[in-house]
């Protein structure tokens, strides 16, 4: 949601919703399903480089390929300390997993792409020695020893950023880490356990405030809004909800209505008296939600806030099997978006989050 470091999200949220109907919030990128194939990993001495591309190279084909770009999600750290997806244009390559990791390194190639208020997550001078994708969807990322040169408070952020950046690709389910060719059972500084690998199920920006007994809870990830100057973007937050709540759709909606934690720097446009009217309906990847009139974000009748709509879609499609969201009020599907267009079709999960073109 930015133009080379300067975003224009507040305006684009409104205009971009013209493209929402059934095809996603932020646009599509068919290349995301590609990932580095299983391969042997080379461990290098200082000064050497690793070439992981596949296929032939040379001539005009290479020159043309070098100029082509593709949208990728990089998970970076914002001014509030949250790990946040930002979509950037990267040079097209066959070694996509290795590339996105290299763009997480401080003072690396991401430096010219960083939005205002954001920083890279991996310590400066960290080298990606190799990646290996196993048949079960586990990807092994091997880093140089400089990987361990981070502050203790950044350890979980680094782990989450690596995991969520790599699992944007459909065939990557879990991430394991090596340092200089050696498997790691724990992270090197604060010793966070990672022996069995890490997945999105482990959460991101975990908020367990007010949870007395975490053993009787399970995670649900929802998206709140953050603001940087005049620009806005969406932040995933994993909340712990009681195991007594069997319906994760209801749990996610209730957490959105509850809103972000006080002092977090996040915001919400949900009215506190918003409620679901009846149980959500799920069929063929589509969830239908029926709200009371408090879902409206203003005094204008039937108008739903863009941020409310986007937060619902991002949060619910984070759950397995949910591809789109349809919204009703008191049993009627007569909502209108902020741009005046009727919300007549289900809204699909975007391929990319926080990109300039919805």
Automatic annotation (TrEMBL):
Keywords: Signal. The keyword Signal applies. Residues 1-27 form the signal peptide. It comes from the Bacteria. Pfam families: Germane. Residues 43-65 are annotated as: Disordered. Residues 97-188, 249-338 form the GerMN domain. This is Sporulation protein.
């Amino acid at each position: 949601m930015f133009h080379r470091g300067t975003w224009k999200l507040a305006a684009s949220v409104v205009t971009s919703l013209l493209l929402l109907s059934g095809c996603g919030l932020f646009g599509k990128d068919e290349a995301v399903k590609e990932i580095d194939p299983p391969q042997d990993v080379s461990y290098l001495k200082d000064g050497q480089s690793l070439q992981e591309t596949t296929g032939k190279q040379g001539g005009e084909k290479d020159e043309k390929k070098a100029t082509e770009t593709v949208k990728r999600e990089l998970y970076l750290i914002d001014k509030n300390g949250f790990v946040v997806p930002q979509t950037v244009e990267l040079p097209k390559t066959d070694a996509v997993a290795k590339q996105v990791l290299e763009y997480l390194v401080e003072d690396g190639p991401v430096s010219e792409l960083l939005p205002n208020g954001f920083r890279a997550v991996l310590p400066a001078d960290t080298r990606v020695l190799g990646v290996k994708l196993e048949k079960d969807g586990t990807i092994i990322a091997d880093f140089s020893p400089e990987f361990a040169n981070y502050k203790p408070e950044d350890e979980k952020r680094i782990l989450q950023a690596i995991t969520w950046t790599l699992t944007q690709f459909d065939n990557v389910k879990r991430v394991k880490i090596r340092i200089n060719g050696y498997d790691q059972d724990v992270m090197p500084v604060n010793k966070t356990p990672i022996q069995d690998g890490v997945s999105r199920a482990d959460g991101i920006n975990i908020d367990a405030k007010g949870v007395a007994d975490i053993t009787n809870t399970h995670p649900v990830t929802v998206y709140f809004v953050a603001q940087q100057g005049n620009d806005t973007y969406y932040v995933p937050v994993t909340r712990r909800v009681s195991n007594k709540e069997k319906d994760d759709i209801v749990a996610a909606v209730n957490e959105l209505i509850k809103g972000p934690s006080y002092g977090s720097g996040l915001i919400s446009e949900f009215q506190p008296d918003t409620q679901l009217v009846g149980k959500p309906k799920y069929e063929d990847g589509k969830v239908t939600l029926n709200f009371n009139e408090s879902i409206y974000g203003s005094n204008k009748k039937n108008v739903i806030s863009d941020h409310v709509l986007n937060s619902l879609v991002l949060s619910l499609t984070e759950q397995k099997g949910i591809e789109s969201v349809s919204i009703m009020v008191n049993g009627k599907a007569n909502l209108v978006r902020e741009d005046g267009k009727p919300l007549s079709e289900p809204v699909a999960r975007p391929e990319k989050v926080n990109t300039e073109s919805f």
